[in-house]
Amino acid sequence: MHPLRAHRLYLHSKPSRKEAQLEKPLGAERNLMSLKTVSIVIPCFNEEKTLEFLVERVLASDTCGLEKGIIIVDDKSQDSSFDKASALSAAHPEISVFKHEINRGKGAAMRTGFENAKGDIVIVQDADLEYDPGEYFKLLKPIIDGEADVVYGSRFRGGDSHRVLYFWHSIGNRFLTLLSNMMTDLNLTDMETCYKVFRRDILNKITLTEDRFGFDPEITAKVSHLRPAPRIYEVGIRYSGRTYEDGKKIGWKDGIRVVVSILRYNLFR
Ligand SMILES: Nc1nc2c(ncn2[C@@H]2O[C@H](COP(=O)(O)OP(=O)(O)OP(=O)(O)O)[C@@H](O)[C@H]2O)c(=O)[nH]1
Ligand SMILES: [Mg+2]
Questions:
Q1: Does residue 242's CB lie within 6 angstroms of at least one atom of ligand 1?
Q2: Among the four residues 3, 8, 9, 182, which has the most C-beta atoms within 10 Å?
């Protein structure tokens, strides 16, 4: 923090009117009055190693004063994920757990989560530890400030730290984002990011059908085709990618499904 600014905070904790306007764009207060709650939807498939730790971080996260509701959707895990999710829910009333009777994929888990999410804003949160809930405040800010309706957290923008991992995987990600951008005419840098944040009213306008990893291109395409067009923002986020030994599951076949979804939801609608 700038030394002068610290001095001001110490001497006069209340900022001048002009400073307050600089920090908060017009509309921020109006938005905070209408936006009270945030739902964090966590799709979970065999994540017993990370689920509890991840949920602890979600519980501790700064959501800019919005009340949190956490929805865990267990996608017929074969490990102890569901039991762990149930224990978390018993200990914390803000956590609800839903269970699929057969494994249906991330997209289907997200549909179950969205149907049960009551928040004014909805955040997608994977159950592994690749993304950091400590960044919610950054992702929420453009919506609370009244500037954005949708925010994507980009692993390829900004100066935050990223674990250095698979080269071809990152080329694949950039290719999928490029193809999606060519069809949607958006200049996203990371269409495949887990961190996608929506105002509830935007989600209400779209119907999702993809069961697996076609979820990301489908939701991106459908949001981009809405009229009036929602205001989409990106913020740079940290990323701590996991290795296949750590439990990474996504593979080249999922990439093909993503290509099919990009073409399908942009060209045939
Ligand atoms: N792989 C997979 N994940 C699922 C499924 N259903 C729900 N999920 C959850 O969806 C989220 C994303 O899955 P990940 O396998 O982490 O996918 P990813 O982050 O794109 O790829 P990784 O690099 O493998 O982490 C995780 O929280 C999973 O637990 C499923 O059927 N398969
Ligand atoms: Mg992951």
A1: yes
A2: 8
- Ligand 1 atom with the shortest distance to the CA of 194: 19
Taking only the tens of pLDDT, the chain with its 269 residues reads 443 333 333 333 444 444 444 455 455 555 666 899 999 999 999 999 999 999 999 999 999 999 999 999 999 999 999 999 999 999 999 999 999 999 999 999 999 999 999 999 999 999 999 999 999 999 999 999 999 999 999 999 877 777 787 888 889 999 999 999 999 999 999 999 999 999 999 999 999 999 999 999 999 999 999 999 999 999 999 998 888 887 777 788 889 999 999 999 999 98
Q: Which domain CATH number covers 84?
A: 3.90.550.10
- Domain assignment present for residue 122? The answer is yes
Asked if residue 71 is part of any domain, the answer here is yes
How many Cβ atoms sit within 10 Å of the Cβ of residue 151? 25
**Domain count for the chain:** 1
Query: What DSSP state is assigned to residue 239?
Result: B
Whether the CB of 43 sits within 6 Å of ligand 1: yes
* Domain membership flag for residue 173: no
Q: Is the peptide bond before 43 cis (omega within 30 degrees of 0)?
A: no
Which domain range does residue 128 map to?
4-165+193-204+229-245
Tokens of 42: 């966590």
Which of 56, 47, 39, 244 minimizes the C-alpha distance to 132?
Answer: 56
Distance 243 CA to ligand 2 centre (A): 10
267 inside domain: no
